[in-house]
Amino acid sequence: MNKIFISAGLALTLGAGYSLTAFSQVKPEVMVKQRQSAMALQGKYFGPLALMAQGKAPFKADVVAYNASLLDALSRMPWDGFDASTKDVKSAALPAVFADTAKFKDAQDQFHGAVGKLVAASKGSDEGATKAAIGALGKTCGGCHDNFRQKP
Ligand code: HEC
Predict the structure, then answer these.
(1) Rounded CA gap, 21 and 136, in Å?
(2) What is the pLDDT of residue 2?
(3) Assigned superfamily of 27-148
(4) Of 3, 42, 85, 100, most Cβ neighbours within 10 A?
(5) Which are the contacts of 60, defined by CB distance < 8 A and separation ≥ 6?
(6) Whose C-alpha lies nearest to ligand 1, atom 6?
(7) Model-level pTM greater than 0.85?
(8) Contact, 59 vs 127, CB < 8 A?
(9) CA of 43 to the centre of ligand 1 (A)
């Protein structure tokens, strides 16, 4: 009997949790802040790698592998924050983000592809290939910013 009560209670709790996530409206201003935070963290973990690829900092394979794994997670975070409801919130996102969603999605896909290649390269021991993967990833950041982000 007890077991049944407990699992019914659990189902209710879980059910309530799910519907909260599915139906609660996150304020547009909050979404903008969250997507900008994810971007800022991408900058934090990509920056040192860019310096290594450019020979401006010593190459450290363990740092590259660690940062690449964080970028792998971070690279999935910003996009749901570019919800149509945030269109009129002041931010550095250009109107093209909301007008040309297919192109914006394509830029995300290219970025994900490049992150995946860096993760793979960082598991090997080829410094040249890893640096090339960092450079290629940087191009996908810049490529999207050129089209979708106001010039800082
Ligand atoms: C698919 C497009 C896209 C890709 C790929 C992308 N960005 Fe961005 N980034 C944006 C947009 C759009 C903004 C402006 C967001 C806003 O103001 O709401 C932004 C903002 C930023 C910011 C400023 C965040 C802040 O504090 O407001 C940083 C830093 C940044 N990006 C770094 C990166 C780095 C580093 C990469 C690659 C590792 C990257 N971005 C990849 C679109 C992209």
Answers:
(1) 36
(2) 55
(3) Cytochrome c/b562 (1.20.120.10)
(4) 42
(5) 52
(6) 141
(7) yes
(8) yes
(9) 8
Residue closest by Cα to atom 29 of ligand 1: 40
**Cα(3) to centroid(ligand 1), Å:** 49
3-state helix, strand, coil in the chain (%, to 5): 75, 0, 20
DSSP-derived 3-state class of residue 149: strand
Structure tokens at 93: 């996102």
DSSP one-letter string for 3-35: HHHHHHHHHHHHHHHHHHHHH----HHHHHHHH
Mean pLDDT by 10 residues, the chain (152 residues): 54 50 75 97 98 98 98 97 96 98 98 98 96 98 98 86
